[in-house]
Amino acid sequence: MTADRPTWLIFAPSIFVTVWSTGYVGAKFGLGYIEPMTFLALRFACVVVIMAGLFAIMRPPIPKSPKEWIHLAIVGFLLQAMYFGMCYMSFDAGLSVGTLALILAMQPILTSLIAPRWAGESVSWRQWAGLALGLTGAVLVITATSEVASPTLFGFLFAALALIGITGGTLWEKRFGVSHHPVTANLVGFTAGLLGVSPFMVAFETMQISWTWQLIASLVYLITASSLIAVGLLLAMIRAGEVSKVSALFFLVPPGAAAVAWLVLGEVMPPIAWVGMVVAGFGVFLATNKSKKTS
Fold this sequence. Notes:
mainly alpha, about 75% helix
């Protein structure tokens, strides 16, 4: 008999997918007024200031050993600097959002291939079927809604690095992560992210900022929703469940992003894209729900 799931864990997947998906639209509002690495550095710096203030007020527990500090920093670097940083660099190199989303949709498959050895998890045929359906649905949505771009080789290279970043961060958190206070974890993680993107900002960008309401609105949303809520939920779900199942949720991000773009930006959602969303959703259901066993 299994214990009842915590209430927050029941609603966490849908909140995570919604917030993570809307991050694409939030970033699109801001990137026209600021360079990508400068944008990320500003975003991460704001989160660090917020977390530092909360840390000073709340005085939460801190990691008990140097290894725990290092593991928090590694996860932060992989998720913040490498994943988000390389996503933004791929956009700057000419890669379309749809193409990037298609590449990143391979994350659940890559995670499931590595998880049995790395995190000691077994992946059932039911989960593999769900992962395959999820990938199929994501491809249907992306190909139906995205225009064909002419990215450079660097665009694909940055996208591959982003894929490695999100996969590595997920697996590292599952194997080495300890349930730290969210304020402590975010403070260390986003500090590592800020240190990771800053050299790119200094080396390749002018660091000029056009302060418009669009940029401010984008920055506020990305700080509160994407940086704090979505990343916090991701790490919490990884600790609470099997990493391959949590990763399967990423198949819903490209369809979710397409739906948000349709609602907010008026981008076209062809009928085949809606079919893809249903297929991806059913695939995630198969991959994240255990079949009932009789005793």
